[in-house]
Amino acid sequence: MNSYHLDHLQYLETEAIHVMREVAAEFERPALLFSGGKDSICMLRLAEKAFRPADIPMPFLNIETGHEFPELIEFRDRRAKELGAKLIVRTVDDAIARGLATASASETSRNRLQIPVLLGAIEEFRFDCCIGGARRDEEKARAKERFFSFRDGFGQWDPKNQRPEIWNLYNARLSPGENMRVFPLSNWTEMDVWEYIRREKLSVPSIYFSHERECFRRGGQWLPIPPPHSENGHPDPYAGARPKPNEKRANLIVRVRTIADMISTGMIESRADSVDDIVAEIAAARVTERGTRADDKSSEAAMEDRKKAGYF
Amino acid sequence: MPIPAHHPVDILRFNTCGSVDDGKSTLIGRLLYDSKNLMEDQIEALERSADITGGGQINLANLTDGLRAEREQGITIDVAYRYFATPKRKFIVADTPGHVQYTRNMVTGASTANLSIVLVDARQGVIEQSRRHTCIASLLRIPHLVIAINKMDLVGWSEERFIEIRDQFEEFLPRLDMKDVKFAPISALNGDNVVEPSPKTPWYTGPTLLGHLESVHIGSDWNLNGFRLPVQWVNRPNNPTDARLHDFRGFSGQIAGGIVKVGQKVMVLPGGNISRVKEIWTYDGPVTEAFCPQSITLVLDEDIDVSRGDMIIGPDNLPGASSDLHAKVCWMHPRPLQCGRRYLLKHTTQTVQAVVTAIEDRINVSTFEPEPDAPDLALNDIGEIRLKTSKPLIFDGYATNRLTGSFILIEQGTHATVAAGMLFPPTEAVKPEYTDFSI
């Protein structure tokens, strides 16, 4: 009987496929959040495994902050096309223009501004479920989240009042206006994601591999220098995210470990230029993935507060 | 801890339970810290909050207590999941709260566990919470149990005290039908016998806690007898570019028991149609056999009616089929369970209507004695009930199959998950209409 045994990646894979098929069967209008980042790349492979030879029975949705790495956008569009999927993109800029979101003068990160855009897209397309690539090992508030995370009519997560989730029996029932966020990768770690990318031979955006880039030092991190602002009459979208004269600049060999947008992503100095190198680098890493995310450093409860407001 | 490349490792899922202040979160913090699974920024964050709120003392519990209210009150509210790895295994840890009012979360965390750690404060010995947690672990049929007697430093590392508490447990353990129970004297705060053996317990010859977690045998925790495939989703390509797929009709699901092979006979329940497995389709190509808990897509020989909620089974170890059910339930909602009430019942991949026809008893978790004539089951109560469903369920006893023997109850209207249910074995196996349903 010993050959009937799953290793850890096979176990995580079958669990995630089961979750995805539950979504397809239990919801009327699900969407899959796809950013082009490493976690959502794994999700697409899992969706293929769950639904082929049929089409993946849901569109892809991405909420752009407007500060994306161009490599990521290119990769996202290409991958959606390869898979024959419908890709829906909604942007913070558009939401600001339509008055759905208001930029704060003191906050350069548009992380929070993604919330009303996401909720707007859910309303516009009447999505009853969004599949996301969040993992519990990323962050303390995420560690408390269910696979099927219930959101009320305002998109809010109430951590003290979550539905108990027992065995693999997911309660997908909703009333009109309510919404579910589903996280098939809940039990995956950063290492699992890269080992899976290696096993499945998945391609990832080039910025995950080492490359030369001009960066500047801020808050103990190397941040990428944003693209130049063209004088087009609009305010600089990267205002506040450009290096100040006293901030050190350097050309470095770097890569990203986790991708938010250009404003919130710290570059790490690395020579890893293959998936094998990355796996080895993570095995030896002494800081967590989110240690390079500026958006989580603002306070101990930064993620909890965003999630309560309707974040991914 | 680095994982050697290409080294196949398996996953052990465990949960920790105990009363408030028994040191559950500290223990997990200690496991992560001593097995070098903590990162510098996590240690930094701990030190930062130690300077602000802890008077300079690092609080390992802050690693798992992630919600604002938890850190403020110094308690764990919800199940927190943690992940760590050693070269031997990967671990998924469910840190489950000790408060009576959060017992439902313990059931949540324990339902998928291979192993439970029940923490006991060496000064206090067995208290009601210890009995409750051990009872729930036994009820959920968690295959392995570890009783970690914590804070041994506060009782002078007394072997006598350790034996006294072990004896307290052994007084009631025989009634609980737990097969594998281990006892370990530890100090989570100081790390004794957690990852490294302690010099203070020369009288203890067992493994450290981590040593046990790394080596306990979990190979047989899945059921490989009697093929069960609850159909989750019917796979019918809409506009296949590949002409061979025009008539493709596959039945997708996660195998909930047993092994299936190409060419074997299967029956679809509750309809009773019989067919043969033509192909086991996976994204990575067809396979000749598949087993629990793999996710697969079955293609059958004949075009028969199969939809979500049906169960495809093999010819041996037949399940039961009935709409009269007998089950133990753990009640998880402030509105009590009452006889005559209707609920939605989700079992494998189908959701049916159910009405509670009888409450047989309530289990007193302090004495483990059933108390008959319970008028209702309140939040955190465990009891035996009878249910009638609008459609027959295809099921096994929970003791033989956790996946086909379990269900949840959902309150209509609010859609709250109100109960976890474990079915008693069927009184008789399903009777195939066709006598040739055998090998």
Helix content of chain B: 10-25%
Q: What structural category do the secondary elements of chain B indicate?
A: alpha+beta
Strand content of chain A: 15-25%
Low-confidence runs of at least 5 consecutive residues of chain A: none
Helical percentage of chain A: 25-40%
CATH topology of the largest domain in chain A: Rossmann fold
The fraction of residues assigned to DSSP E strands of chain B is: 25-35%
For this structure, what is the CATH class of the largest domain in chain B?
Alpha Beta
Shape of chain B, please?
globular
Assembly context of the chains: heterodimer
Mean pLDDT across residues of chain A: 89
| Number of separate domains of chain A | 2
Beginning-to-end CA distance, first to last residue of chain B: 49 Å
CATH architecture designation of the largest domain in chain A = 3-Layer(aba) Sandwich
Biggest sheet of chain A: strands side by side, in what order? 3-2-1-4-6-5
Provide the CATH architecture of the largest domain in chain B: 3-Layer(aba) Sandwich
Describe this structure in words.
The complex is a heterodimer of chains A (312) and B (439). Chain A has 312 residues and is of the alpha/beta class. Chain A folds into 2 domains: 8-201 and 301-308, 3-Layer(aba) Sandwich (Rossmann fold); 206-295, no CATH class. In chain A, 29% of the residues lie in helices and 15% in strands. Chain A contains 8 helices and 10 strands. Chain A has helices at residues 8-26, 38-51, 70-82, 92-97, 114-125, 190-200, 275-284, 302-308, and strands at residues 30-33, 60-64, 87-91, 129-131, 148-151, 179-182, 211-218, 221-224, 249-256, 267-269. In chain A, the strands form 2 sheets. In chain A, strands 3-2-1-4-6-5 form a 6-stranded mixed sheet, sandwiched between helices. A 4-stranded antiparallel sheet of chain A has the order 8-7-9-10, with no helix packed on it. The longest helix of chain A has 19 residues, at 8-26. Chain A is globular, with a radius of gyration of 19 Å. By secondary structure, chain B is α+β, with helices and mostly antiparallel strands. Chain B has 3 domains: 10-215, Rossmann fold, CATH 3.40.50.300; 228-313, Translation factors (Elongation Factor Tu (Ef-tu), domain 3), CATH 2.40.30; 320-423, Translation factors (Elongation Factor Tu (Ef-tu), domain 3). Chain B has helices at 24-34, 40-53, 68-73, 103-110, 128-139, 159-172, 209-215; strands at residues 10-17, 80-85, 89-95, 115-121, 144-150, 180-185, 228-230, 233-235, 250-254, 259-261, 265-269, 273-281, 289-291, 295-300, 311-313, 320-331, 337-338, 342-347, 350-364, 369-372, 376-377, 382-395, 406-410, 417-423. In chain B, the strands form 5 sheets. In chain B, strands 7-15-11-12-14-9-8 form a 7-stranded antiparallel sheet, with no helix packed on it. A 6-stranded mixed sheet of chain B has the order 2-3-1-4-5-6, with helices on both faces. In chain B, strands 16-22-19-18-23-24 form a 6-stranded antiparallel β-barrel. The longest helix of chain B is centred in the N-terminal third of the chain and has 14 residues, at 40-53. The model of chain B is unreliable at 1-6 (pLDDT under 50). The chains are: A alpha/beta (312), B alpha+beta (439). Chains A and B meet through helix 1, helix 2 and helix 7 of A and helix 2, helix 3, strand 2, helix 4 and strand 9 of B.
